[in-house]
Amino acid sequence: MTLPSATATSATPPMATDPPRAALSALPQAGYISFDGVDAASFLQGQLSNDVAALGEGAAQWTSYNSPKGRMLATMLLWRASATSFHAFVAADLAATLRKRLAMFVMRAKVVVTDHTSDGRCFGVSGTEARHAVRAALGAAPEAGHGVTHDGADIVTTPDGRVLIHVPIAIADATGQRLAAQANLVAATHWDWHAIAAGIATVVAATQDLFIPQAANWDLVGGVNFKKGCYPGQEIVARMQYLGKLKERLFRLHHDGDPPSPGAPLYSAVFGDQACGTVVNAAPAPGGGSDLLAVAQTQAAAESTLHLRAPDGPRLTLLDLPYAIPAQVAPNRPKLA
User: Fold this and answer.
1) 265 in helix, strand or coil?
2) Interatomic CA distance for residues 129 and 66, integer angstroms
3) Which of 144, 166, 249, 285 has its CA 20 to 30 A from that of 126?
4) Is pLDDT above 70 for 337?
5) Over 80: is that where the pLDDT of 28 sits?
């Protein structure tokens, strides 16, 4: 059995109003890169926004790779497979260019950067019973924020409890069958919706080099360490944290129509004809319409006047995030009954 891809929606059951407790998706949107060698930790420590040196074996963390101007070129779930080996889940449409760019900075360091996106397959299991289903299917499911290699499969649980699996192509079909016996098969967009519900932004090609980490709430989900040493864009990220006034944040929103594409602009009466936000990720919502994450001006979100694609476009409804935005920028809106 070959699991359907994200585009094969006609063969994939639609999302129910109540999401399944364990939902399996094939994830063509996920790429996978490895960093292997005795200098892998020190190399990544000088490139990524989080504290790689402090990451224990088997542990996983959100992190980002930024431009010298502090803007996110990629978001990653990085896990330490061993003392000298790290692996990262990234957006598939960024994996090849990201590997090439990072490899340019290896210089004399003893580390090899490899893109495994085309020689393997990624699966995602989400829902309240995700880890239970993966353990029953594959024999292992690490705690949140940890990863393990078991019977040829790399299994990593995100900090918010979803499970990512990467396997070589040779065992991809068999792995998919085992997982499908324990979890409901759903479209790849279902995985995206769970990430949106968790408030975890994924930078893709259309949104590359647009946001500093704090604007995407990366500081709120543990994706930035402000005490580690230098990395690309570190001065700008730190200056915003300690001296600047952040005018943008990531918000979770609902749209009554189909999911907008990443990069779609948002508008508000507060800003007139000037765009005041950008869609980062979007996916069909269980109850209809679509949910999305967007980086937007906090003033516009506070006024609850965000519109999609045009000043008079569809109005967006502000939804809660599972974590708190700092009070000084939190939108002031009435609580729903």
Assistant:
1) strand
2) 34
3) 249
4) no
5) yes
The rounded distance, in Å, linking the Cα atoms of 211 and 281 is: 13
Q: Residue for token digits 């002031």?
A: 332
16-25, 129-138, 253-262: the lowest-pLDDT one: 16-25
CA angle 55, 191, 80 (to 5 degrees): 15
User: Is 0.85 topped by the overall pTM?
Assistant: yes
Verify that 127 and 29 share a domain, yes or no: yes
Residue owning tokens 């009954």: 337
- Domain with 307, as residue range(s), is 245-332
| Helix extents (H) in the chain | 40-45, 92-104, 130-138, 172-180, 188-197, 234-242, 298-302
What whole-number distance in Å separates Cα of residue 191 and Cα of residue 295?
20
Provide the 3-class DSSP secondary structure of residue 69.
coil
Phi and psi for 237 in degrees, rounded to 5? -60, -45
Rg (CA), the chain: 20
Collapsing DSSP to helix, strand or coil, 264 comes out as coil
